[in-house]
Amino acid sequence: MSYNTKDIPADSTGVRFMDSGIHENVELTNIRYDKSPKEGNKFLAFEFKNERGQELAHTEWEPRDQDETRLNQKITNQIKRIKHIAKRYMPEDSFNFEANDFEGFALKTIQLFGDLYKNKKVRTKVVYSNSNYTSLPNYVPFIEEMSVPKEESKLEILSIDKMIRDKADRETPVTNPLDELPPITTGGLPF
After folding, report:
1. Is residue 85 classed exposed, middle or buried when 0-12, 13-18 and 19+ CB atoms within 10 A define those classes?
2. What is the pTM of this model?
3. Which of 118, 124, 125, 137 has the smallest set of CB atoms within 10 Å of its CB?
4. pLDDT tens-digit profile of 78-95?
């Protein structure tokens, strides 16, 4: 391995993720269906990029719950969020279909989006999730067309929005490792 400083700019930013807040001129760059490598959990991801090249991945996981009523509510809420995104790129009545499972729903969503999202700028609201990752909120509205004048925007930061990342909890206090050493003695010498 070698360390070559020639092509590395000294003042380039290392932050490539969108921070919390309301972002203007954001583009949806990709929509993908996949499974997590470790557990095989299915998800539909919407990938966004702002003018500064900062990215945001909004992931919708396959809903799960033992209780059928709660599961149906999770599915309904998820459809509402995805339809809210879709409405910015196609007429709402174009996003009407049925699917037998999450995979079918995700693949049909990708098919309907096609290339409609390419080069279309939107305004997005970004918050921190409970896992401390930036994402779109779990409730609407969180995305709108840039044709909506900023002063008429429906996107606003609410008191329930998590805008600051949680600090890591420390279960054990930080101690000075030198405190654990036995005291230094002079062996009876007068120092």
Report:
1. buried
2. 0.79
3. 118
4. 999 999 999 999 999 999
